Amino acid sequence: MAAPSIPADELLTLAVATARAAGAALAKRSDRTVNSESDHDIKLQADVDSETLIRERLARTKLPVIGEEIGGDAGLLDHDEPYWAVDPLDGTYNYLRGIPGACVSIGLWRGRRPVLGVVFDFWRDELYAGGTGLGLTMNGRALKPRWAPDIPRAVLCTGFPSTTDRGGEAVRGFVARVEKFKKIRMIGTAALALAYVAGGRVDAYFEESIKLWDIAAGLALVESAGGFVRVEPVVGKPLAFNVWAAGRADLAG
Ligand code: IPD
Ligand code: CA
User: Fold this and answer.
1) Residue 137 in contact with residue 128, Cβ under 8 Å?
2) Whose CA is nearest to atom 16 of ligand 1?
3) What is the pLDDT at residue 3?
């Protein structure tokens, strides 16, 4: 059955309620069962349970979902139709070890474009929501970010995604950015890093080979705040992108 056409503000309201429900469940959960582990990645049962809850709540929109744990159809990016892109727990390793910086991320995209997004840091009770033509809010209050005037005074959030190259060229690029920017932060959650760009806590974000679900909501937030995004698909890696986001184009390194 074709998906009903639901106004964007209603979809955002549903995404906010869904992120709050999933975040509340993660915040009160004590179980940290590890389902699998690889060199630079870890998967918890909490990731799966959170995605299941989110999918149940979004089901009434009848829109397709691409999620980090249960997957989805990468072909959705090639059609001008809306779909959800969900990271049910971003910052999984932080969540496991109790390091601040874990969130629920729910984005709505149309083809290759962000439409709206919600990022909920359930430990700090900070919920960022925004979308094209809908502005940006944190906990329901409008945010008007101010970004650094130039790169030497700018803070860059970055990271090394689990499957990305950690060899010489990647490290040389990292060192070059360490030299250019005033400060570098690696907070272990791409979704929250992008929410921080949107809200003006930091000025720029860069990661290579980052997956759609990590960035889908955050990029919508940055755009809703009037920021700049550059998203380049990685050849041969479905749903992976090299991404810059910043308050303005001149703050992307
Ligand atoms: C990870 C975080 C991290 C990024 C990794 C992601 P996870 O997501 O977003 O910042 O560098 O690529 O895998 O594993 O915590 O859901
Ligand atoms: Ca993630």
Assistant:
1) yes
2) 90
3) 60
Give the number of domains in the chain. Answer: 2
Cβ of 67 below 6 Å from ligand 1: no
DSSP 71: B
Domain containing residue 93 = 8-142
Residues surrounding ion ligand 2 at CB below 5 Å? 87, 90, 214
CA distance 253 to 234: 19
Nearest atom (ligand 1) to Cα of 211: 12
Residue 199 lies in a domain: yes
pLDDT at 120 over 90: yes
- C-beta separation of 195 from 124 below 8 A: no
Shared domain for 105 and 191, answered yes or no, is no
Q: What is the pTM of this model?
A: 0.96
Q: Is residue 1 part of a domain?
A: no
Let me know if residue 3 belongs to a domain: no
Compute the distance from residue 87 Cα to the ligand 2 centre, in Å: 5
- Expressed in angstroms, the distance from the first to the final Cα of the chain is 45
> Is pLDDT above 80 for 164?
no
> Ligand 1 centroid to 184 CA: how many Å?
17
Tell me the pLDDT tens digit for each residue of 211-225.
999 999 999 999 999
